Amino acid sequence: MGINLMNKYVWLVETIQRAGEISLKEIQSKWLDSDLSEGVELSQRTFHKWRIATEELFGICIDCRRTGGYNYYIANAEVLHEGDIRSWLLSTTSLQQQLSHSISLSERILLEYIPSSQSYLSDIIKAMKTSHCIEVTYQRYTSATPRTSILEPYALKVFKQRWYLLAKATDMPYLLLYSLDRMQGVALVEQKYQLSPDFDAEEFFEDCYGTIIDATVEAERIELRVTAAQACYLKSLPLHHSQRLLREDEEYSVFELYLKPTYDFLQALLSYGSELEVIAPASLRTQMQEEVAAMINRYR
């Protein structure tokens, strides 16, 4: 499928979403006003082809309300706010479409670059689709030499500008995360693997903050007190999907989360400095105190 056709599907979804409800005649009029049309009208047949395609690709159902006129609307608008790959694809394509029409502003629109996605991502995705194992040469930051292993690729995850592969080495009984930017070689092999029908990537990372998988750390209730200024940022971009606001006043907001307080989560909390305080659990509060004390000692 070409990028241009994908952009047309995204245009259709966004046009209907912005309108709430809209007739085919209005859609056709807006289409002619868009740069994508290149002056070519949108036929009823083409509209319905696009409508069916958006449901197949993105899971977005464009339905028709026949009472009060034949108006189209998004019947399951909640999917536009979910965090699955289809929503990600829709938002990414939408952004690409907007940027492609803003080339003159390229020096004024700065994006984050994810270098690890360029090298081996396509090979890994191909292996996942065909259930083939991959041979990966990998060097950890803590290792002096690289190691080559045969991996069963289970899932991919993006975290802080890095792609990670959740996989099981054929000589290991458990799953590990591998950062794509530490891979020195990836190749598909003839050997195939069977993904367990019970495996659920979202469920696997349910209680994780980022990419640290530590079976010795249990998920627990965490309570954070944050200054009013920083609370605005946490409300707009939660630290974790379990986050919820317990109470707030003019000075502070208190949030509750339920997750595994691994080291990457601790680092995230420390990044807020004096604007954030851990209230509970006591063990995490103690860890924060120890880290802050070590930082103070470092600067003496």
Give a verbal description of the structure.
The protein is α+β, with helices and mostly antiparallel strands. The protein has 3 domains: 3-103, Arc Repressor Mutant, subunit A (Orthogonal Bundle), CATH 1.10.10; 115-204, SH3 type barrels; 220-298, Alpha-Beta Plaits (2-Layer Sandwich), CATH 3.30.70. It contains 9 helices and 12 strands. The protein has helices spanning 3-19, 24-33, 44-58, 85-100, 121-130, 201-204, 228-236, 263-270, 282-298; strands at 22-23, 62-65, 71-74, 132-138, 147-159, 162-169, 175-179, 183-192, 220-227, 244-248, 252-259, 276-280. A hairpin with a 2-residue loop joins strand 5 and strand 6. Helix 1 (3-19) packs across helix 3 and helix 1 (3-19) crosses helix 4. The longest helix has 17 residues, at 3-19. 17% of the residues are buried.
Name some characteristics of this structure.
300 residues, alpha+beta, Arc Repressor Mutant, subunit A, SH3 type barrels, Alpha-Beta Plaits, 3 domains, 5-stranded antiparallel β-sheet, 4-stranded antiparallel β-sheet, 9 helices, 26% strand
Topology:
Blueprint (H helix, E strand, L loop, with lengths): L2 H17 L2 E2 H10 L10 H15 L3 E4 L5 E4 L10 H16 L20 H10 L1 E7 L8 E13 L2 E8 L5 E5 L3 E10 L8 H4 L15 E8 H9 L7 E5 L3 E8 L3 H8 L5 E5 L1 H17 L2
Antiparallel strand pairs: 1-3, 2-3, 4-5, 4-8, 5-6, 6-7, 9-11, 9-12, 10-11
Helix pairs in contact: 1-3, 1-4
Summarize the structure.
The chain is an alpha+beta fold. It is 35% helix and 26% strand. It has a five-stranded antiparallel sheet with strand order 7-6-5-4-8, covered by helices on one side. The chain has a four-stranded antiparallel sheet with strand order 10-11-9-12.
